[in-house]
Amino acid sequence: MTQQPLTEVAETLSDGIVVSIYGDIDLQRSPDLRIALIQHTEGSHGRLIVDLTSVSYMDSSGVATLVEVLQYQCRSGGSLILCNLQPNVQSIFEISKLDSVFNIVPDIDTARTA
Amino acid sequence: MTSQNDIEICVPSQPRYLCVVRAAVGMAVEKFGFVHEVRHAIQLVVDEALSNIIRHGYDGREDGPIRISLREIPGGNENDQAEIQIIIEDEAKQIDPRQIQGRELDDIRPGGLGVHLIKEIMDEVTYVPRERIGMRLTMRKFIDKSDLVQQEGPSV
User: Fold this and answer.
1) In a domain, A2, yes or no
2) A84, A107 in Cβ contact below 8 A?
3) Cβ A26–B15 below 8 Å, yes or no?
4) Is the residue at A1 inside a domain?
5) What is the mean pLDDT of each run of 10 residues along chain A (114 residues)?
6) A88 near B CB under 8 A
7) Residue A67 with chain B: CB contacts under 8 Å
8) How far is A14 from chain B (nearest CA, A)?
9) In this complex, do A91 and B40 lie within 8 Å of one another by their Cβ atoms?
10) N or C: which end of chain B has fewer CB within 10 A?
11) Residue B4 pLDDT > 50, yes or no?
């Protein structure tokens, strides 16, 4: 059986990349997610759009990973945009009051023009 | 103290079993009859509690036991609410409950959100050192009857 990748570069933009994340993000998978996203951003040096369509569950370790990536992007002059959050995932950003810290948009088309 | 009606799950302190506990807790809450939002909230708080035990209680040690007990109290309190009670016990190091605090949300940094989420979602959260070793976390969530899935009546 082929295992689904954790992340995948879905699209290359003129000023960045779109990365899709797959599956639940918890304490087991968030360390690998951190490494994968940092590796993707090292190659792009611009906008990082993270498509969360295929993430139906995320805990605080996943949110912490995205905070790290956001800080990394800010330091390196890039940006981070999150799109297509499912309600379960959106709610954890709201409860932790991080929905105002991240640039969260409804869909990929909005993210491309954000 | 558990009763014969409780659902009990025991896992070793390994992150790879978090998904197993999530699935079991989700099914249990669904069988209790609560709507999806309640199921997700309970899955999240149990996940956060276990993650904290694995990371901070056992310091990453992978052979520590963690016992999760779920109880549905359907009877209704003075506000006519149902209740889900969750007890999580470990044999990890004991911590002064006063030190178990969520971080200030204005302090934007990775980590420290788990306890905040637990306290935000649950109505009562109590950490107590167990008699000899480990900690006991007791969490209670009161749920309006409107958050029960409507049962289908008999077909006519």
Assistant:
1) no
2) yes
3) yes
4) no
5) 81 92 96 94 85 97 94 91 97 92 96 89
6) yes
7) 108-110
8) 30
9) yes
10) C
11) yes
Q: What's the pLDDT tens digit per position in B76-108? A: 677 778 899 999 999 999 999 998 887 776 776
Residue A55: give the domain boundaries. Answer: 7-113
Residue B70 confidence (pLDDT) above 70? yes
Task: Convert the pLDDT of each residue in B99-145 to its tens digit.
Answer: 888 777 677 666 679 999 999 999 999 999 999 999 999 999 999 87
CA-based nearest distance A41→chain B, Å: 18
- Compute how many other C-beta atoms are within 10 angstroms of the C-beta atom of residue B57: 22
The total number of structural domains in chain A stands at: 1
What's A23's domain CATH number? 3.30.750.24
Buried b (16+ CB within 10 A) or exposed e, B125-135: bebeeeeeebb
The answer to whether the Cβ–Cβ distance between B113 and A96 falls below 8 Å is: yes
Give CA–CA dist B80/B144, Å, rounded.
7
pLDDT for the residue numbered A2: 59
Chain B: closest CA distance from residue A18 (Å): 23
Domains (ranges, CATH) in chain B?
A: 7-103+114-147 (3.30.565.10)
Q: How many residues does chain A have?
A: 114
Q: Return the residue in B44, B50, B122 with the most chain A beta carbons within 10 A, the one to mutate for interface testing.
A: B44
